[in-house]
Design a protein that fits this description.
By secondary structure, this protein is α/β, with parallel strands linked by helices. It has five helices and four strands. It has a four-stranded mixed β-sheet, with helices on both faces.
Amino acid sequence: MVEVVNRQRGKKVDTEAWSNFAVKTLSAIGKHESSATIAFVSDKSIRKLNQQFRNIDKATDVLSFPADDETNLGDVAISVQTAAAQAKENGLTFENEIAQLILHGLLHLSGYDHETDNGEMNRLELRLRKRLGI
């Protein structure tokens, strides 16, 4: 089960559809028995989280907060404002950008780290994008 919550007011998001997509994504990762929470937030909120947990004082697109639990992987925060700007900048739809960020965040919750794994996460993410139709 994936709980999706909308904690921003800037853009309407279909929490049920994104929850269904996230469940499908967890299954593709091999974590079909696991759960997670995804929160859609504002740039202001994600900037505070980024400052608090990473000591970086700027907004970012996605943050992952792994849990020490095999069934509940943790939480993912996605900035809707940053996602919309990145989608426009990269010629993608907003939905495609959100799907990529959900996949990216759930991979981090599953233990992957693109900063330390010599490209393993990036290669897997590209394969899963194809499988998930992103």
